[in-house]
């Protein structure tokens, strides 16, 4: 990758967030005097400026293949950036306080791609341990994987948690049969709806009475149903409803009496 002074100056002064920034004292290469410079760390590049508001950096240090360590110097809180090789330059810097020195040493030590590579390898190792179910993994299981089972749906989970409800009484010929188990005692039936004959088969509901007309024929709607068909249906429905309610009440009373 080719870098020129303009691209470096733009990257150093752009609005991208910096990993660390602050004033440090930098020792000169030829002269051992220290100069106060404004340092900005972005990625693996350490820029330094003459002043904080300078538009262009004085220099840049690429933090690859280097070690950051404390060193002895005339200035307090000094540390050095050392590169491998006999002809490589060593940068000696000094912070203004112990806290600032520790912060810079930590951030500079983590700025290189070599450090990032080690972190990625460690994360990959932990991920493999988790996938294999080793004791070092988080949430892993040491048991052999069993056959796959589908996860129960929300409706099935609700059915497992809820208590069993009584079955809805079946209906025969439009009438509810509250006791349809063979051999069980049945409530007395006086309406003819829902009753059983001698063989145990359910009887159909009774037919409405017929009224006689003047010409000797018969027609439906005699007695209380001598009105419109809608009134007849409403009254028939009310009669069946009363019978069903009475049968249900008798069944509930019998059930309460059988319970201990």
Give a short overview.
The chain is built from five helices and eleven strands, in the order αβββββββαααββββα. By secondary structure, the chain is an alpha+beta fold. Residues 217-225 have low confidence and may be disordered.
Protein model, in words:
With 260 residues, the protein is α+β, with helices and mostly antiparallel strands. The longest helix is centred in the C-terminal third of the chain and has 30 residues, at 229-258. Helices cover 30% and strands 20% of the residues. It is built from 5 helices and 11 strands, in the order H-E-E-E-E-E-E-E-H-H-H-E-E-E-E-H. Strands 4-3-2-1-7-6-5 form a 7-stranded antiparallel β-sheet, with helices on one face. Strands 8-9 form a two-stranded antiparallel sheet.
Number of helices: 5
Gyration radius, in Å: 47 Å
Helix content: 25-40%
Global geometry: rod-shaped
Note the main sheet: 7 strands, antiparallel
Structural class: alpha+beta
Spatial strand arrangement across the major sheet = 4-3-2-1-7-6-5
The SSE order reads: HEEEEEEEHHHEEEEH
Tell me the total number of β-strands.
11
Mean pLDDT: 75
**Contiguous runs where pLDDT drops below 50 for at least 5 residues:** 217-225
Distance between the termini: 90 Å
The quaternary state of the protein chains shown equals: single chain
């Amino acid at each position: 990758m080719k870098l020129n002074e303009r691209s470096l100056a733009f990257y150093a002064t752009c609005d991208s967030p910096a990993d660390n920034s602050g004033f440090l004292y930098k020792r000169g290469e030829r002269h051992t005097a220290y100069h106060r410079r404004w340092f900005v760390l972005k990625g693996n590049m350490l820029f330094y400026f003459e002043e904080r508001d300078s538009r262009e950096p004085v220099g840049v240090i690429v933090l690859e293949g280097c070690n950051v360590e404390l060193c002895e110097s005339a200035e307090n809180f000094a540390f050095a950036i050392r590169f491998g090789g006999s002809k490589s330059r060593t940068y000696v810097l000094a912070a203004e306080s112990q806290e600032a020195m520790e912060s810079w040493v930590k951030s500079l030590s983590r700025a290189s791609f070599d450090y990032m590579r080690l972190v990625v390898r460690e994360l990959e190792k932990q991920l493999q341990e988790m996938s294999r179910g080793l004791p070092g993994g988080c949430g892993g299981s040491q048991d052999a994987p069993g056959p796959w089972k589908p996860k129960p749906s929300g409706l099935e989970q609700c059915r497992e948690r809820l208590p069993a409800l009584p079955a809805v009484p079946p209906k025969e010929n439009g009438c509810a049969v509250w006791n349809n188990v063979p051999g069980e005692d049945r409530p007395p039936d006086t309406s003819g709806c829902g009753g059983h004959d001698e063989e145990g088969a359910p009887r159909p509901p009774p037919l409405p009475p017929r009224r006689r007309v003047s010409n000797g024929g018969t027609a439906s709607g005699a007695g209380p149903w001598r009105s419109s068909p809608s009134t007849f249906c409403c009254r028939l429905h009310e009669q069946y409803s009363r019978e069903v309610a009475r049968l249900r009440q008798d069944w509930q009373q019998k059930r309460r009496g059988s319970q201990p």
